[in-house]
Amino acid sequence: MMRNVFTDGREKSAVPWKIIVPALCFLAVFVTVLLGTAGIGRRTREQGRATAEEAVRRAAVQCYAIEGRYPRDAAYLEEHYGLILDTEQYSCHLKPVGDNLMPEIFVFLLDG
């Protein structure tokens, strides 16, 4: 039996590594990109929530400046001060403290 001088019996064991190493590299890059885009999505939704909360706060202050009292709920701000809130993404809760005290304002992200 004659051995090939060029392969020296290593050819059969080298073939799986030629496939496995690039596949693992591709998988690592894919997972990194996937995790990165998920993180961006979370940050974007949180930033949108903070922006919505600030819009509710500004509308409440505007209501106080014009009427001399803070609103009782977000629906009042939507009806009289043009507040537009995406109710499919956010839930807004105003907890009145008094007519002349800023209500506690909470905007929550809805799942889905």
In words, what does this structure look like?
- The protein is mainly alpha-helical and 112 residues long.
- Helix content is 58%, strand content 11%.
- The protein has two helices and two strands; from the N terminus they run ααββ.
- The protein has helices at residues 11-67, 74-81, and strands at 90-95, 104-109.
- A two-stranded antiparallel ribbon has the order 1-2.
- The mean pLDDT is 85.
- The chain crosses the membrane at residues 20-40.
- Keywords: Membrane, Transmembrane, Transmembrane helix.
- Average pLDDT works out at 85
What order do the helices and strands follow? HHEE
Q: Major sheet: order of its strands? A: 1-2
- Kindly report how far apart the N and C termini lie: 68 Å
Rg, Cα atoms, Å: 30 Å
Number of domains: 1
| Class from helix and strand fractions | mainly alpha
The main pleated sheet reads as: 2 strands, antiparallel
